[in-house]
Amino acid sequence: MKERKELLRKYVPISELKEVIYTKENHIARITLNRPKSMNALTERTHNELASAIKDAEQDDDVRVFIITGKGRGFCAGDDIKELFLGGGREEESLRATMMKAPKEYKLRQLQGAVLTGGADRLMTFNKPTIAAVNGAAVGYGCEIALMCDARIAAESARFGLGMFLRMGLMPNHGLYLLPLIVGLGKANELILSGEIIDSREAERIGLANKVVPDDKLEDETNDLAKKMMRCAPISIELSKELQRRAFNYPLKLINEYYTEMFSFCAQSEDHLEAARAWVEKREPRFKRR
User: Fold this and answer.
1) Mean pLDDT over each residue of the chain, to the nearest integer
2) Which residues neighbour 160 within 8 Å (Cβ) at sequence distance 6 or greater?
3) Domains, in order of start, for the chain
């Protein structure tokens, strides 16, 4: 199958990974986001390294199960606002500036099968079992990473929230249709539109987390689930996941194309820039709806 063109994605050689720890042992591939001082918030490099490791795990026939977690007290705090949205203090080098310089590249009619991706988006079509071991805060794109996995084992200290996108003047991607499938439309709307962050027990109650365990048992419980998944035939798992995706009857390619256009519109707005600046300056944003 022809691989889609991914805008803003540059794969990093596995030997050069720095912001992601990637290991493979006993048929289990494990990614640990490795920016603990920033709650594993994602820079452009982190996104690229994450995409590289996921691609490697997907293509390695010896890998039977994939696990993703975070180092330190956070799973993933989403995108690094100062680094990605404000260019680390160099706004002319930010994601928004990139889109402003070449807006035609992000117009729907000119995409030609391309899609604006985050580093973990390959998980949406990953052909092996995937588990998120949520060891702390999973907000914004960090929450989407957890949602893209087949199962979520949460530590008691875990937190979940998807509304960070809207607070930044942007919008979620896969979370907009994954969250309603997992928790129902009403609860999904409440969480997304309010920006509320919920604790692990509430996440378990509404079905967002499959299981909540003590923090010091997270790794053991995740490994136990991985071993159970490895009892099943790989080809059966792959075909079951593919049929499940088709059964939802969501045209993922079309959704991705519309999302790319809509997200680029948001990212080029004055309100998004104001939200990013306000976050870094620790104040309330002043939105102007433009």
Assistant:
1) 85
2) 134, 138, 139, 143, 146, 154, 197, 198, 200, 203, 208, 209
3) 6-281 (3.90.226.10)
